[in-house]
Design goal:
single chain, alpha/beta, D-Maltodextrin-Binding Protein, domain 2, 7-stranded mixed sheet, two-stranded antiparallel sheet, 10 helices, disordered N terminus, Phos-bd
């Protein structure tokens, strides 16, 4: 499989995800690295950016890294206007975002694939339900039901679930409209339909998950990497019998239907080198140490083949 991401041709084939036996490059300290980086973009990647930053600063204590996690939609304008060094995103770029950047700079932005994630459907652990069909997900969250559901689902009893004696209706939680998770879930789970007005929009995936854990009858969608002990992720499928649990293997094989990729957007002029600090931070993210932090934060690392191609781009 080939994918053209903002002018960078990446040969993904079947090896998007890192396997345990793959040898990723180790990070070697580079002399003379100093300065500051400003990151504007995805909340999904906020904690991972913090982990990368903390580890990177053990190599370069004087480096400053500021992280503004206000949603994926804030990354492209920040990179376009030059108010950010890097732009983490939990979705790909829209054509309008590429066009705006190109009008300003005369070339397209570059997108680096830095981790793999899945959008999970979470319920609290007291809920006996373990799986939903794609049509049921749409019937719960969507006002338009473009995925084929005939009726909205408002109560757990409609799903034949005896949840705490049947006294609780379904309370929905999700992300706000500047979030890449919001836009991608709308595309993947609602068939480009509209969310119901009763979905409680939260500023971050952590807020969604914490709300579900503390609310009887709650369900919500969020980045799987933000999972906590008080919630569980549901299996999802075309039918309940074929529902796929969210596991490392189902994400690697892309059998889980809401698998997605996480990116960092950068401004790199063709034929020109990146500033030293920016290049080294990205090189660290794409190293064995950086990808170990991806696993530690609950996401899935990128394959060595993709990393090798991306290192050639930034170096």
């Amino acid at each position: 499989m080939r994918l053209l991401v903002s002018g960078v041709l990446i040969l993904w084939a079947t090896a998007v995800f890192a396997e345990p036996e793959q040898a990723l490059p180790t990070y070697d300290r580079y002399p003379g690295v100093d300065g500051s980086i400003t990151s504007v973009g995805s909340d999904t990647l906020a904690n991972l950016l913090a982990l990368w930053s903390q580890q990177f600063k053990t190599y370069y204590p004087h480096v400053k890294i500021q992280i503004q996690a206000s949603g994926s939609s804030t990354a492209p304008p920040a990179l376009t206007e030059g108010t950010a060094t890097i732009g983490p995103m939990s979705r790909g770029l829209k054509s309008s975002e590429v066009a705006a950047f190109q009008r300003r700079h005369g070339y397209e932005p570059t997108m680096l694939l830095v981790a793999v994630d899945a959008i999970a459907i979470f319920v609290d652990r007291k809920n006996p339900i373990n799986a939903l069909t794609l049509q049921q997900v749409d019937a719960i969250f969507s006002a338009t039901q473009f995925c084929g559901a005939r009726h909205p689902i408002d109560n757990w009893s409609q799903l034949d679930v005896n949840y705490l004696g049947g006294e609780y209706g379904i309370r929905m939680y999700g992300r706000n409209s500047v979030s890449g998770t919001y836009g991608l879930f709308k595309e993947m789970a609602l068939c480009e339909g509209d969310f119901r007005s009763t979905v409680n929009e939260q500023p971050g995936s952590s807020s969604v998950v914490m709300s579900i854990a503390s609310t009887n009858g709650a369900i919500g969608y969020a980045a799987y990497g933000h999972k906590i002990a008080g919630v569980k992720a549901l299996a999802i499928g075309t039918t309940l019998d074929t529902a796929v649990a969210l596991t490392g293997e189902s994400v690697r094989s892309r059998q889980y239907p809401f698998t997605r990729f996480l990116y960092i957007m950068i401004n790199k002029a063709p034929g020109e080198s990146l500033p030293t600090l920016q290049r080294e931070f990205l090189r660290f993210i794409l190293s064995a140490e950086g990808q170990q932090l991806v696993s530690r934060d609950g996401y899935f690392p990128v394959s060595a083949d993709v990393i090798e191609r991306q290192l050639k781009v930034i170096q």
